[in-house]
C-alpha cells in the first residue's frame, strides 16, 4: 500500500511538472514570433526589456483566458500592426515580399531550361 | 544580340539595387506603430492610484465626453516636460484627463504630483505594463484622445505647444 501511495504521489508530481513545461513552451513559441518594438532585431522571447517582459506577462494572461496562438497574433496585430509579427500575412504591403522569391525562382528556372534543355 | 544582353542586364540590376538602397537611406529605422484611429478602447479593470479603489473602463470612460489618457511615470524625464501642458489642458472643462501610471513606485508618483500639480481626474495604476500594451502603447509618455469609447487620436512622445493647440481644436 505504501509503495502504491508513493507511486501515486510521484506520478502526480511528474504530471504537474509536465503541465508547466507545456505552458511555457507554448508561451515561448508565441513570443519567439513577436517582435520587441523597442529593441532592434530582437524577438520578445530574446529580449529582457521592460516592454518585452510586459508582453510576456500579457501572453501568459491571454493563454490563461483560453486564447489560441492565432488569436493572440491577431490581438497584437490589431494593436501594433503587421510589424509586430515575424511572419506577416499576405496583404498589399507585403505582396512583394511573398511573390518576389517565387518570381526569382521562376525566372532562374526559365534561364536554366533555356540554356540547358533547348541547347540540346 | 546575346552579347549586348549581359551588360544591359548587369546595368539594370545595379540600377534596381541603387534605387532600393537610395529609398531606404531616407527611411527612418525607428519604427512607430500604425496609429490606428477609431479603434475601440480596451476593456480593463485596474487599481486607482490616489483612492486605492478598483475601477473598470466603463466606469471611467462615459459616452459623449472627450477624454485624454496620458501614460506617465515619475522616472520619465519627458513626462516632466509635458506636465505644464497637461496642467493647462486640465483647466478646460470640456476635457477630462485620465492618467496611467506606468511601472512606477506609488510613493514617487505621489511626490511627482505634489511637486508639479495633479491634472488628472483619475489615475490608473499599471504596475506590470500590461495595461498600456492593451492600449497599443509601447513607452512613456503617450497620449490618447478618446470620444464615445473610441480612440480618435494618438500622440507618441511628449506633448508640446503645437499639439496643445491641435487638441484644443479637436475638442471644440
Output the CATH homologous superfamily of chain B. Glutaredoxin
The quaternary state of the protein chains shown equals heterodimer
Compute the number of structural domains of chain B: 1
Helical coverage of chain B, percent range: 40-55%
Shape summary of chain A? elongated
Along the chain, the helix and strand elements of chain A come as: HHHH
Ranges of chain B where pLDDT stays below 50 over 5 or more residues in a row are none
CATH architecture of chain B, please?
A: 3-Layer(aba) Sandwich
| Most extensive interface between two protein chains, with residue counts | A-B, 17 and 17 residues
Report how far the terminal alpha carbons of chain B are from each other. 69 Å
Q: How confident is the prediction overall: mean pLDDT of chain B? A: 87
* Derived structural class of chain A: mainly alpha
Order the strands across the largest sheet of chain B as they lie in space.
Answer: 1-8-7-4-5-6
Q: Explain this structure to me?
A:
The complex is a heterodimer of chains A (120) and B (172). With 120 residues, chain A is an all-alpha fold. Chain A has four helices and no strands. Chain A has two domains: 2-88, Cytochrome C biogenesis protein (Helicase, Ruva Protein, domain 3), CATH 1.10.8; 90-120. In chain A, helix 1 packs across helix 2. The longest helix of chain A is centred in the N-terminal third of the chain and has 31 residues, at 2-32. Chain B is an alpha/beta fold and 172 residues long. Helix content of chain B is 41%, strand content 24%. Chain B is built from six helices and eight strands. In chain B, the strands form two sheets. Chain B has a six-stranded mixed sheet with strand order 1-8-7-4-5-6. In chain B, strands 2-3 form a two-stranded antiparallel ribbon. The chains are: A mainly alpha (120), B alpha/beta (172). Chain A binds chain B through residues 37-38, 40, 50-51, 53-55, 57-58, 61, 78-81, 83-84, and chain B through 29, 31, 33-34, 36, 39, 103, 128-130, 132-136, 138-139.
Amino acid at each position: 500500500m505504501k509503495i502504491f501511495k508513493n507511486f501515486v504521489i510521484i506520478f502526480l508530481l511528474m504530471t504537474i511538472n509536465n503541465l508547466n513545461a507545456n505552458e511555457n513552451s507554448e508561451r515561448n513559441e508565441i513570443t519567439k514570433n513577436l517582435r520587441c518594438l523597442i529593441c532592434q532585431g530582437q524577438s520578445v522571447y530574446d529580449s529582457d526589456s521592460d516592454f518585452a517582459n510586459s508582453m510576456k506577462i500579457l501572453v501568459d494572461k491571454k493563454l490563461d483566458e483560453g486564447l489560441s496562438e492565432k488569436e493572440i497574433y491577431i490581438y497584437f496585430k490589431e494593436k501594433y500592426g503587421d510589424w509586430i509579427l515575424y511572419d506577416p500575412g499576405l496583404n498589399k504591403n507585403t505582396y512583394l515580399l511573398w511573390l518576389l522569391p517565387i518570381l526569382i525562382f521562376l525566372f532562374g528556372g526559365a534561364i536554366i531550361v533555356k540554356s540547358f534543355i533547348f541547347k540540346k | 544580340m546575346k552579347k549586348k544582353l549581359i551588360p544591359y542586364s548587369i546595368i539594370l540590376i545595379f540600377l534596381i539595387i541603387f534605387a532600393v538602397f537610395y529609398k531606404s537611406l531616407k527611411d527612418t529605422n525607428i519604427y512607430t506603430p500604425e496609429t490606428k484611429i477609431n479603434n475601440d478602447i480596451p476593456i480593463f479593470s485596474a487599481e486607482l492610484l490616489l483612492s486605492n479603489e478598483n475601477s473598470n473602463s466603463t466606469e471611467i470612460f462615459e459616452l459623449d465626453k472627450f477624454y485624454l489618457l496620458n501614460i506617465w511615470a515619475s522616472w520619465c524625464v519627458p513626462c516632466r516636460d509635458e506636465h505644464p501642458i497637461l496642467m493647462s489642458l486640465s483647466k478646460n472643462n470640456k476635457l477630462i484627463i485620465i492618467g496611467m501610471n506606468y511601472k512606477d513606485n506609488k510613493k514617487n508618483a505621489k511626490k511627482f504630483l505634489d511637486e508639479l500639480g495633479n491634472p488628472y481626474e483619475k489615475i490608473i495604476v499599471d504596475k506590470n505594463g500590461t495595461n498600456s500594451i492593451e492600449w497599443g502603447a509601447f513607452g512613456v509618455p503617450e497620449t490618447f484622445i478618446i470620444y464615445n469609447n473610441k480612440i480618435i487620436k494618438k500622440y507618441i512622445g511628449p506633448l508640446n505647444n503645437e499639439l496643445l493647440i491641435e487638441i484644443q481644436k479637436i475638442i471644440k
